[in-house]
Amino acid sequence: MTVTELVSYDEALASYDPVMGLEVHVELGTRTKMFCGCSTELGAEANSQVCPTCLGLPGALPVVNKAGVESAIRIGLALNCRIADWCRFARKNYFYPDMPKNFQTSQYDEPIAFDGYLDVQLEDGEVFRVEIERAHMEEDTGKSTHVGGATGRIHGASHSLLDYNRAGIPLIEIVTKPIVGAGERAPEVAKAYVAELRELIKALGVSEARMEMGQMRCDVNLSLRPRGTEKFGTRSETKNVNSLRSVERAARFEIQRHAAVLSSGGTIIQETRHFHEDDGSTTSGRVKEEAEDYRYFPEPDLVPVAPSREWVEELRGTLPELPRVRRMRLREEWGISEHEMQSVLNAGAVDPIVATVDAGAPADQARKWWMGELARRANEDGVELTALPITPEQVARICALVAEGSLNDKLARQTIEGVLAGEGGPDEVVEKRGLKIVSDEGALGTAVDEAIAGNPDIAEKVRGGKIQAAGALVGAVMKATRGQADAARAREMILEKLGVEG
Amino acid sequence: MPGISREEVAHLAKLARLELKDEELDHFAGQLDDIIGAVAAVSEVADDADVPPTSHPLPLTNVMRPDEVRESLTPQQALSGAPAQEQQRFKVPQILGEE
Ligand SMILES: [Zn+2]
């Protein structure tokens, strides 16, 4: 393996202009596979969700899943695409054990959706339009386990084992047009595009789009051309880049690698490359087969899909508010900056905050807890915010307890801690841990008396008109009540008892 | 003039994992060339008559099924025809040869 000395990113961008193409595969969340009724449920035992059709047994015939077509059309519409009024499936022929039929049923020159765009917002608020070439329907492959090699990789393996439960699960492949004009921000645009697409897919409810589970996978195609020239350079295709951060890193690495090869007088070979999560590098894969080597031809076992315009319009009517539009609306409703909204989005806190507000909490309070205490906990535990064992309703209840004066911030944090520890809902935790603010006059009065008696010097100062000194007495009351006193009421009582006006 | 060369037939045979002897290549290249010529003749007539190419004999569209789970095979049934199996999976020979 040859190690390429990379050129620095700035140096690369000084001489070259990157052109990108992004191909994203989304595994649909349909109950059944694309061409047969086998379940798509995750976690089933090996080869328990297969049938003659998805095993490619002789004589078996595929039938298209209507929900798969609907999802494809809705994705197309959400991406501002035109929807084909007539299109076919095609066989993509190749020999590889992950497809028992020896072809993948896909679409070739007649995609169901084409010519669209997706506007994505970069960290600083700039909006970049990514044009969509096409979105087409196809099916996933089986899962291989390579045995006998040192690292479980295909190289050096003595044989491989195949589980076809995943073979035939519907996939939508979304392909951008060449993304030009992003310049040094190309890696950022790539990441923002995949992030926005993921939000869109989730909002449509067609897939959970969890990248870490392979429900959404991205290929990053990249080439460089000398600055000021028009003609695209030769591209590399980095396959299966499976996190947002990796998309950005892969694009960045390839820019630096291409620049190094080109500026030393070398040529880029059109090839697939593998991305390595550990150091963010890519290494050479196989030299790309020519498209014609797949010998695409129309699938004779399936009839054309010809969505009527009525059906398309009906599906258009089911589109949700698009994520970027929704974020703009929420940002205004919540009265926060672009930057703050971006943080909320990055933290995965948009939906939890909305749900907490829906449950009756003021937006600023909901945001404060989800972006503060809860984000910190999720981060510590290495989980998504929504995976924390606390519901938006429970957070809203805590906000209500603070608003009515039963809890202060410190006690609210302890309540959250209790809920997260599985001690019950907020009211139960407050009850069990005895967290309610001490505001009944008797108990508070005693604590105030003790504070005055225990700090005669300070009490004297306050009597003498140094009202600021009362703070120390309030502090003593809070300490004595382990933070559970109503501080404002304690201050009032201290001043009252010392005979001074607040 | 459409047609197919001996090299193209050899390439297709390789893609289809068919091992063809030299004389078979000569034989099939000739036959396939005749077939392609015959199909081209049909296309010419169809072109004149403005007939779109067809990929299916029946004038059907939108044959779809509802997204409802149907019973699958059992793993035992699924694997019953497999030449080799291991850990309830289809066992296949080494995919990448030594390079
Ligand atoms: Zn099946």
TrEMBL record, chain A:
Keyword ATP-binding attached: yes
Family matches, as HAMAP family: GatB (MF_00121)
Record function comment: Allows the formation of correctly charged Asn-tRNA(Asn) or Gln-tRNA(Gln) through the transamidation of misacylated Asp-tRNA(Asn) or Glu-tRNA(Gln) in organisms which lack either or both of asparaginyl-tRNA or glutaminyl-tRNA synthetases. The reaction takes place in the presence of glutamine and ATP through an activated phospho-Asp-tRNA(Asn) or phospho-Glu-tRNA(Gln).
Any single Pfam family the record assigns to this protein: GatB_Yqey
Assembly and oligomerization: Heterotrimer of A, B and C subunits.
Asn/Gln amidotransferase domain boundaries: 351-498
InterPro entries: Asn/Gln-tRNA_amidoTrfase_suB/E, Asn/Gln-tRNA_Trfase_suB/E_cat, Asn/Gln_amidotransferase, Asn/Gln_tRNA_amidoTrase-B-like, GatB, GatB_Yqey_C_2, Gln-tRNA_amidoTrfase_suB_CS, Gln_synth/guanido_kin_cat_dom
Descriptive protein name: Aspartyl/glutamyl-tRNA(Asn/Gln) amidotransferase subunit B
Taxonomy, superkingdom: Bacteria
Catalytically driven reaction(s): L-glutamyl-tRNA(Gln) + L-glutamine + ATP + H2O = L-glutaminyl-tRNA(Gln) + L-glutamate + ADP + phosphate + H(+); L-aspartyl-tRNA(Asn) + L-glutamine + ATP + H2O = L-asparaginyl-tRNA(Asn) + L-glutamate + ADP + phosphate + 2 H(+)
Keywords, comma-separated and alphabetical: ATP-binding, Ligase, Nucleotide-binding, Protein biosynthesis
Lineage of the organism: Bacteria, Bacillati, Actinomycetota, Actinomycetes, Kitasatosporales
Enzyme Commission number(s) from the entry: 6.3.5.-
Entry's family note: Belongs to the GatB/GatE family. GatB subfamily.
Protein source organism: Streptomyces smyrnaeus
Automatic annotation (TrEMBL), chain B:
EC number per UniProt: 6.3.5.-
InterPro entries listed in its UniProt record: Asp/Glu-ADT_sf_sub_c, GatC
One Pfam family this sequence matches: GatC
Keywords assigned: ATP-binding, Ligase, Nucleotide-binding, Protein biosynthesis
Catalysed reactions, as listed in the record: L-aspartyl-tRNA(Asn) + L-glutamine + ATP + H2O = L-asparaginyl-tRNA(Asn) + L-glutamate + ADP + phosphate + 2 H(+); L-glutamyl-tRNA(Gln) + L-glutamine + ATP + H2O = L-glutaminyl-tRNA(Gln) + L-glutamate + ADP + phosphate + H(+)
Region (Disordered): 72-99
Top class in the EC scheme: ligase
Job description of the protein: Allows the formation of correctly charged Asn-tRNA(Asn) or Gln-tRNA(Gln) through the transamidation of misacylated Asp-tRNA(Asn) or Glu-tRNA(Gln) in organisms which lack either or both of asparaginyl-tRNA or glutaminyl-tRNA synthetases. The reaction takes place in the presence of glutamine and ATP through an activated phospho-Asp-tRNA(Asn) or phospho-Glu-tRNA(Gln).
Quaternary structure, from the entry: Heterotrimer of A, B and C subunits.
Entry's family note: Belongs to the GatC family.
Name the record gives this protein: Aspartyl/glutamyl-tRNA(Asn/Gln) amidotransferase subunit C
This protein's encoding gene: gatC
